């Protein structure tokens, strides 16, 4: 096939992009989005600070724009994200007791997943709950502080009941190298969840790569080790800093690794043209600022 989405579909996968609602009025942007991708992730519109910036009042306007754009064109939607320490409104981080935080977390999950019930193929239920570095420890967040380690499994149980047909993912960055302490910690958590029957269906590897943190040589083995636990793997926020042949080769390696593991079910790039990347001034995506296909695009299409 001649587009990313159609080629991925031939392999039983999806190929998605992070999308921002405020770009949907730009015809060059939607032309490429509609032509190339068969899945979308709202880049910011489903985050807690956008949907429930004050307690009990829910704003689905921006996220609905993206979901409607996608579903009316037969694209899948990834939900991103329900429980995360960042882009979290102050009213949540200020809640004093475990009961308050638990109630707020569960009601947020129920409300958001209820609103989109049946429309989301996979949800990032919990995002970035582990620390960087060699400790393998949980990140300090209001959820961790007030509820303790059990907040993650509680979130997944609530999520399963809220939309039983959505795949429930744990999503994080720097879990791409199988020998990294953070990767081991997430691996151990998923293994524990599977052994105790806590509902989890997928692990999201964000896969933000740059020269400090290149695509690891054991990336495919890492995908394979998660898959062997009985979960799908999705590459959820792929971007690779660089240009030209080097960038193209890195992108090809990622696609090849995913396709080699049957449980690696889809890839999402974290934006469409370089100038809309969250890496401001960077060029980590598949299209340049004029929406021309870069060598990285050609490498991905050839690998799919
Ligand atoms: C980023 C968005 O791309 C930016 O627009 C926003 O300002 C900050 O968040 N990990 C995640 C994503 O899970 O939600 C982040 O997205 C990038 C890192």
UniProtKB/TrEMBL annotation:
Enzyme class, first EC level, given as a word: hydrolase
GO molecular function: endo-1,4-beta-xylanase activity; polysaccharide binding
Catalyzed reaction equations: Endohydrolysis of (1->4)-beta-D-xylosidic linkages in xylans
Residue ranges of every copy of the GH10 domain listed in the record: 1-303
One biological process term in Gene Ontology: xylan catabolic process
Active site: 237 (nucleophile)
EC number annotated for this UniProt entry: 3.2.1.8
Membrane-spanning parts: none
Keyword annotations of the record: Carbohydrate metabolism, Glycosidase, Hydrolase, Polysaccharide degradation, Signal, Xylan degradation
Source organism, top-level taxon: Bacteria
Protein family membership: Belongs to the glycosyl hydrolase 10 (cellulase F) family.
Entry protein name: Beta-xylanase
Source organism per UniProt: Nonomuraea cypriaca
First-to-last residue of the parent protein present: 22 to 325 of 434
């Amino acid at each position: 096939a001649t587009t990313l989405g159609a080629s991925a579909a031939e392999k039983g996968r999806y190929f998605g992009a992070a999308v921002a609602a405020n770009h949907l009025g730009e015809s060059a942007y939607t032309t490429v989005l509609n032509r190339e991708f068969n899945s979308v992730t709202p880049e910011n519109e489903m985050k807690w600070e956008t949907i429930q910036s004050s307690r009990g009042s829910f704003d689905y306007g921006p996220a609905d724009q993206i979901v409607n754009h996608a579903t009316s064109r037969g694209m899948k939607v990834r939900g991103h994200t329900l429980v995360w320490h960042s882009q979290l409104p102050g009213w949540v981080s200020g809640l004093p007791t475990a009961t308050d935080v638990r109630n707020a977390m569960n009601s947020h999950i129920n409300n958001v997943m209820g609103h989109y019930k049946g429309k989301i193929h996979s949800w990032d239920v919990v995002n970035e709950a582990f620390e960087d570095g060699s400790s393998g420890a949980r990140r300090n967040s209001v959820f961790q502080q007030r509820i303790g380690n059990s907040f993650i499994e509680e979130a997944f149980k609530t999520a399963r009941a809220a939309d039983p047909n959505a795949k429930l993912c744990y999503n994080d960055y720097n879990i791409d190298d199988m020998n990294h302490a953070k990767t081991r910690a997430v691996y151990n958590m998923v293994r524990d969840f599977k052994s105790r029957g806590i509902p989890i269906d997928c692990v999201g590897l964000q896969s933000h790569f740059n020269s400090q943190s290149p695509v690891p040589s054991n990336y495919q083995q890492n995908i394979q080790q998660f898959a062997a636990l009985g979960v799908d793997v999705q590459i959820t926020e792929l971007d690779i800093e660089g240009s030209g042949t080097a960038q193209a080769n890195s992108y090809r390696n990622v696609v090849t690794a995913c396709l080699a593991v049957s449980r690696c079910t889809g890839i999402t790039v974290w934006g469409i043209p370089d100038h809309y990347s969250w890496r401001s001034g960077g060029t980590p995506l598949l299209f340049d600022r004029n929406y021309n296909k870069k060598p990285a695009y050609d490498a991905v299409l050839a690998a799919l």
